[in-house]
Amino acid sequence: MKIYAHILMISGMAALLSSCSLITEPIDTYSDVTEGVNDAGQEVVFKDKAAVESHMQTIYRQLNDRQEHWYLDLLLIADAHSDNAYGGTTGAEVIPFENNALDASNSVLARDWTRYLEDVARANRLLLNIDSVQDASLTTTERAQYKAEAKIFRALVYFDMVRIWGDVPLIITEAPDITAENIEEVYDLYFPAQSPEEEVYRQIETDLLEALPDAPAVNPSDKTLFTKSVARAMLAKVYAEKPIRDYTKVIQYADELAADGFGLVADLNELFGTNAVGSDAQARNTVESILEAHFFPGSGNWVTWMFGRDLSNYDNSFTWAKWVTPSRNLIRAYQQEGDEKRYEQAIVYYETSWSNYYPAANYPFMYKIRSAHNSIIKLRYADILLLKAEALIMTSNLEDAAAIIDQIRQRAGLARLSSAVRTDPTAMLDALLKERRLELAFEGQRWFDLVRLDKVEEVMNAVYASDEGRLTQAYPFNSTSYRLPIPQNAIDQNPKLVQNPGY
Question: Could you tell me the pTM of the whole model?
């Protein structure tokens, strides 16, 4: 009975880890699981170069076809779970992010956990099987490049996961088919324990460093690729995080991005705007964009109508309340700074048929995805440049940090930092955090900035009293609030998973 119990448990996790079936007989036909077997009876995952390239395209399509976890839900976590936004709707899956009532039953987090692990499995499938492809037309150089791109993708996925949940299962292999003879041996592969947060960061670091030599160089006309520049941007972000923090390397990789040709666009509308008639994005592949997902007329980006209006189809799906409604606290931050340019890029007002948070006649919406044809920018240079400023502050190079912040502020039409601020380390860190908030609002950064700089309790426990539109706080933020709950359904499937403290 023990074997059958294990099989029942394993079947719920198998798709996430290996895409293998539970069939115990030899596989002799092609399917979505396997390409078949070779003459020696060994499983063939990719029968030729075309199969490898098809799988690589599947990996890239995750940026265009599955925006829920890596973009839509990430904004809910980073902006509505911070002081930037309200949940936006009355839905039970959304409200807990606003009022700090998250628990292990939240359906958004459950969806995200599953989809991130599916992404990891796709990367692993290529990494573990490409070298066995018997096709002379798949060159050594091509194999190395595809592996580099898959490692960058896996690093992107795990970076999101570890920042949300901390300790997570670190899966870099595939589980074999299950038989009565090997079930005890493969059990740990199907049900891995969580790895410590630092170990996950080290794997991300390893993937990115190993990818750098063989990843494609940046292509100024196509920022959708997992390039050397994407690896450098991710390394700068990884080295800014607590477990393996190295400010010298943050500065190094930010400088290497500048050497790759990245800079700031003159006008933020180049990043987020549409053309004059709203039929297409104003621009793609700008000098500031490091990694983005493209959407074109005829195959649009559906998430725009989750946040507001689609300017390419004005009345589409505008009959119900939207996610991630800008908070009064954020609006006041823009107004108090006199930051009109970034305010206009981040927030727009429409008349609505609902009044959950504001009067229906003048209701604010997040505005950085404003049509079905706008790109979703996953990584942009302003984020990395401000991380360099953060690293300079932390290494007591205040004047160079101030020069970077001034560069960002001057593009927004704001004055340079005062001499009193630029000579005070505490004031400089506060200025940096505020600048990141105003520059990167609704780009999935704010919550993670508060976590990285140990500001969660200070900022979030105060905002409920200062923001009259925010729902009543369910629980105070404390030292256990920095990580979100592991989904209960994942724990039910994998008894080795341990819930994060506080949930």
Answer: 0.92
Domain that holds residue 496: 1-196+454-467+477-503
296 secondary structure, DSSP code: B
With beta carbons less than 8 A apart as the criterion, state whether 100 and 474 touch. Answer: yes
Q: E strand or H helix at 168, and its extent?
A: strand 168-169
N-terminal to C-terminal alpha carbon distance within the chain:
33
Write out the two tokens for 125: 């499938």
Kindly list the distances between the CA atom of residue 286 and the CA atoms of 147, 189, 236, 268, in Å, as whole numbers in the listed order. 27, 42, 20, 10
Handedness of CA 474, 478, 484, 485 (dihedral sign): negative
Instruction: Determine if residue 388 is left, alpha or beta; phi over 0 gives left, psi from -120 to 50 gives alpha, anything else beta.
Output: alpha
| Whole-angstrom distance, CA of residue 20 vs CA of residue 8 | 15
How far apart, in whole angstroms, are the C-alpha atoms of residue 463 and residue 477?
11
Name the domain count of the chain. Answer: 1
The residues pairing with 365 across neighbouring beta strands, listed in sequence order, are 348
| CATH number of domain containing 494 | 1.25.40.390
Rounded Cα distance between 241 and 498, Å, is 23
- Whole-angstrom CA distances from 27 to 21, 34, 307, 446 are 10, 8, 46, 49
- pLDDT digit string, tens, across residues 238-250: 999 999 999 999 9
Classify residue 19 by its DSSP letter.
Answer: -
Other CB atoms closer than 10 Å to residue 217's CB: what's the count? 9
Task: Quote the CA–CA distance of 168 and 44 in Å, as a whole number.
Answer: 30
CA distance 167 to 200: 8
Taking only the tens place, the pLDDT of each residue in 328-357 is 999 999 999 999 999 999 999 999 999 999
Q: C-alpha angle with apex 46: 45 to 48, nearest 5 degrees?
A: 155
Which whole-number Å values give the CA distances from 12 to 4, 108, 116, 124, 222, in the listed order? 13, 19, 16, 19, 38
Contacts for 318 with CB less than 8 Å, ≥ 6 apart: 305, 309, 350, 352
Place of tokens 């080795």: 496
Residue 290 falls within a domain, yes or no?
no
Report if residue 403 sits inside a domain.
no
